[in-house]
Amino acid sequence: MLITICVIAYNEENTLRKLFDQICCQDYDHSNMEIVLVNSNSTDGTEAIMHDFSNSNCNDKYGFYRVQVLQNEKKTLPCGWNVALKSYSGEAIIKIDAHATIPKDFVRKNVETLEQGEDIVCGFRPNIIDESTPWKETSLLAEGSMFGSSIAPYRRNQGKTYVKSMFHALYRRKIFEKIGLFNENLGRTEDNEIHFRMREAGYKLCFNPEIISYQHIRSSTKKMIQQKYANGYWIGLTTGICPKCLSLYHFVPFAFVLAIMITTLLSTISATALNGSVSLSGLAIVSYTALMWASYWLLALVMAIIAVIGANKKQRNITNIALPFLFFILHITYGIGTLIGIIKMPNWRKGIKNEAN
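RESULT FIELD:
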């Protein structure tokens, strides 16, 4: 079976060579592997590295069926996906993130699962770090925790099952021929939306824990915060065009942010009446607010302890004491992103309609 591996990259000169080496080490027949590399208008050496890899294959160094280097002028990930989908040759296609690490059996195990009668398959995707430092180990604990990230199935090794969304998934060609391409209006939620359309079309998304790939977390706390904000922001925007493609857990940080904003505001207003006395309703609101905050920090502390207990020796260090606060920062950032996305959503949706007309 001819399989297309797609890599979409923007300014990833520091990660691509390692990923290309891992692609070259795949134990699946290289003559049945097409490589599609999509450069999203990078300003560093990404495109040159892609062409170097393509030229090496032209010299029969790796023996792939074909290596293409394509251009994504619109830069966004769904646009890059669509560039690849219009040009690939394989019977099935899989996109591998530029920040990913894949074992040598990654493609083979995907294909084996596909050949069992599945149309869409994916596997377990744990997080890893690029280098081991005390703070990065703590950041990894935060990302690896259900409390710090999400309950998405591809983050948990839960056994073979069918799921709603995937990461590093392999898709048969017939799927895109039936449901169409990615929605180019979306940013971080393009996978949620297209997987919803796939499910609506009757396809099942098979999760096989024997398939493993690894995703590097962001290299700094600042970049983690930016990522969480962007994720939340696009959740907010997506509620305007495809709310059914989102799950309840996507809105938990937003609900928390909304709750603390409302209760804190009401506590400030109600706690002290104009004559300086404290009303019963004010006391109730203050008590509720205090209970909510206490419950959150207790849960954050418990989840931090659970994460540290389950960590290896290298991950256990003095910076672990900041884990509850890191949870809080990531939740608040994500929730604020969702709130702003929802506020901006009506005008954003109106702009999309105007462009369509």
